[in-house]
Amino acid sequence: MDGKITYTFTSTMWKEAAGSWYFISLPKDISQEIRGNLQWQEEGWGRMKATAQIGTVKWDTAIWFDTKGGTYYLPVKAAIRKKAKLTTDTNLDVTLWV
Questions:
Q1: Which of 29, 56, 59, 90 sits 20 to 30 Å CA-CA off 83?
Q2: What CATH number is given to the structural domain containing 51?
Q3: For residue 78, what are the contacts with CB-CB under 8 A and spacing of at least 6?
Q4: Considering the domain boundaries, does residue 62 fall inside one?
Q5: Can you tell me whether residue 53 is helix, strand or coil?
Q6: Residue 25 has pLDDT above 80, yes or no
Q7: Contact 60, 7 (CB under 8 A)
Q8: What is the tens place of the pLDDT at every residue in 78-95?
Q9: Is residue 58 part of a domain?
């Protein structure tokens, strides 16, 4: 993707305990690198535009920085979970462009 930095990592998807949101936590080293170099791109509440891909499913999204966890979270909507046949607690190979 032109002008964007590419990150690849393996992580698991998890469901928020108090709601119906699903997330993938970025590794802390990648989160620290993104925040250290690109925090100026955040739009408020730690939100940063991104593009994500798991398998053949690619979508425009945003990542959100969680100050308590010290990492960015990638939300995964129901349509993406269904299309990519994603389940929680399974290792997922993720490509992220920011």
A1: 29
A2: 2.40.30.100
A3: none
A4: yes
A5: strand
A6: yes
A7: no
A8: 999 999 999 998 999 999
A9: yes
| ∠ CA 21-26-28, rounded to 5° | 130
Q: What is the CA radius of gyration of the chain?
A: 13
Instruction: Give the structural domain span for 51.
Output: 6-97
- Between CA 46 and CA 44 the distance in angstroms is 5
Q: Are 65 and 72 in contact (CB under 8 A)?
A: yes
| CA dist., res. 1 & res. 12, Å (int) | 24
**pLDDT single digits (tens) 27-58:** 999 999 999 988 888 887 889 999 999 999 99
Reported pTM: 0.89
Which is it for strands 71-75 and 57-66: parallel, antiparallel or unpaired? antiparallel
Q: How many structural domains is the chain composed of?
A: 1
Is residue 54 in some structural domain?
yes
81 backbone dihedrals φ, ψ, rounded to 5°? -60, -40
Cα angle 67, 73, 78 (rounded to 5 degrees) comes to: 145
Give the model's confidence band at 64: pLDDT under 50 very low, under 70 low, under 90 confident, else very high.
very high
